[in-house]
Amino acid sequence: MPQLNFVAIAVAALAMFFLGAVWYGAFGQIWLNFLGKRKEDLNPSSPAPYITAFVGAVLNAFGLAFTLEAFQVTSIDKAVSYGAALAVFFVLATSAKHYAFSGWKWGLFLIDACYDLIGFCVMSVIIVAMTYR
After folding, report:
1. Which pTM does this prediction carry?
2. What is the mean pLDDT of residues 13-41?
């Protein structure tokens, strides 16, 4: 089992979580329009979506740390490349299949996919920078 930097994983997960707050703060109304919902249709008092998002970010960060360590990614430029590749080949490709069958608008996919792509790059940089710098 590779040696993982748990502090870097925690920081990366928090960064992804807060990126989501900024991202959907900026694109939230467009995102809601693509869903055909209003802000009032969401249940802001339920912590479940936020808990799910945070747990997902932690799992993403663990997976990235494990993969970056396994491939011995130690430079920032390679961290960005691997983060982008992992996001595209796994997250975006998998999500695209679900979006295709769900009937959701592709603009919704674009908002979600760009968040994941940028988030994976940011998390990869944090993990590599905190582990190897």
Report:
1. 0.94
2. 95
